[in-house]
Amino acid sequence: MARNSKKIVKMKNSDSKLHSILVNAVVFKDDKVLVSQRSWDEGHEPGKWTIPGGKVERTDQETFSVLEKNLTKEVKEETGVEIEEDMQLISNNTFVRSSDNQHVVVLVFKCKYKSGEARPLEDTIDCKWVTKEKIEELDFPPNVKEYILKGFDHA
After folding, report:
1. Position 68 in a domain
2. Which strand (E) or helix (H) includes residue 109?
């Protein structure tokens, strides 16, 4: 029994070397991009404007296109918008989350609008389509504005 306990502790300690994976979408509808405003109850950057996305969830089985499927689900849950299957990776970076020192990998995809009406849903209080010029007027967390501008630059 003690042997198993040590093994469990060892596995928990090795988890600290793993990254959490986030996927985000820069969703375009014609010449506008979809942005949403975080709830004031959010622990990370409350009230700031952002792009839809979230953590890549573990699956119980082998899943192909897990990043794309997760991103499609997150965009729909947060904004009510459906996106096309074809996505383009436009940025990736890492950071350490200050609340728990978790290392995070962020993958940002340029996506195209498919259907649905943009509205604030999960964890958001506002949602809208904005032009490149309007991006400068909104308050974003670090890096998000750069992700959006990269989306405009990728043809």
Report:
1. yes
2. strand 103-115
Instruction: Return the structure tokens found at 131.
Output: 């032009």
Number of domains the chain is built from: 1
Buried/exposed code over 23-56 (b: 16+ C-beta within 10 A; e: otherwise)? bbbbbbeeebbbbbbbeeeeeeeeeebbbbbbeb
Q: For residue 39, give every residue at least 6 positions away whose Cβ sits within 8 Å of its Cβ, in sequence order, or none.
A: 46, 47, 123, 124, 125
Residue 3: its pLDDT value, please?
44
For residue 8, is it within any domain?
Answer: no
pTM for the whole structure: 0.85
Residue 77 sits in a domain whose CATH number is: 3.90.79.10
User: Exposed, middle or buried: residue 153 (CB in 10 Å: 0-12, 13-18, 19+)?
Assistant: exposed
In a domain, 7, yes or no: no
pLDDT digits (tens, 9 = 90+) for 111-149: 999 999 999 998 899 999 999 999 999 999 889 999 999
| Domain-located, residue 35 | yes
